[in-house]
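Dear colleague,

Thank you for sharing your sequence with our group. We've completed the structure prediction you requested, and as agreed, I am returning the results in plain text so they can be pasted directly into your records. Please verify that the sequence below matches your submission; if there's any discrepancy, let me know and we will rerun it promptly.
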Amino acid sequence: MSNATSHGVSAPAAEAATGEGGRSRLARKASAYVALTKPRVIELLLVTALPTMFLAAGGVPPIGALLATLLGGFLSAGSANAFNMIIDRDIDRVMHRTKQRPLVTGALSVAEAHVFAWTLAVVSTLVLGFFANWLAAGLSIAAIAFYVLVYTMLLKRRTEQNIVWGGIAGCFPVVIGWAGVTGSLDWPAWILFALVFLWTPAHYWPLSMKYRDDYAAADVPMLAVVRGRPMVGIQVILYAWASLACTLLLIPVAGMGLLYAAVAVIAGAWFVGEAHALYGRAIAGEREIRAMRVFHASNTYLTLIFLAVGVDPLLPF
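Please find the predicted structure tokens below.
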């Protein structure tokens, strides 16, 4: 008589339990790999790349180029984020909001993360190169290198301006999207690149205000850690205004229509208003300045702008 049977458990039941446990372990491992890519960050990057492709094509882009560019861009961003988690695993252990990341919990080993990150980097390059074009593939490699080498390894732990220059990595999806469709880079692509660059500090600094203690504990010199809240507030205002100006510049350069112009003005005014409100609460010394309200507003703002970028070429006015 088997051990399973002698303890009152039938062999089929034991095998089923083992199978369920194996599937559960596999699901946890898969979930850990997904978490390594920072899917919420990738979602935002795709929000900028897809509409840019419609603008680049002057309408609906070729489906093959569209799918290849989106897939390649997704894998590229996932690779960069995985490398980032490998390098930052020491500070992720300290920060409350990152303690559940897979390299902190042990859900994945560093070796597994390295293999995953490098695999995504290689596959993304091949997908973009062979199914879109090699300009898009080259820009993808540059994006990974900039995020990992310049932002994560050089700037993040050394300067309060880390997110300003490091944010360049988040600008690459628009030029990759443009190049994926056209095989070239034109002025509208660079204006959208500049828009994301200017938007990033106004987006991220309110988040760093919310998690100021986390960054201070990890010894990461975010602006909110080394400067007072009023200084952060005024910087958010300046970058919000610069973002608005950049969206308006796209109108004459790319020949944008009424829909885009209306969204750029109205959404831009709202975003700037939220930035001013944040600063007002900061200089008033309010204990709760609702920084995350501006963070969420920045996400909505960029989504509206790029939605208009993608829809405008489809309209006759």
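Summary note from our side: Confidence is low (pLDDT under 50) at residues 1-7.

Kind regards,
the structure core
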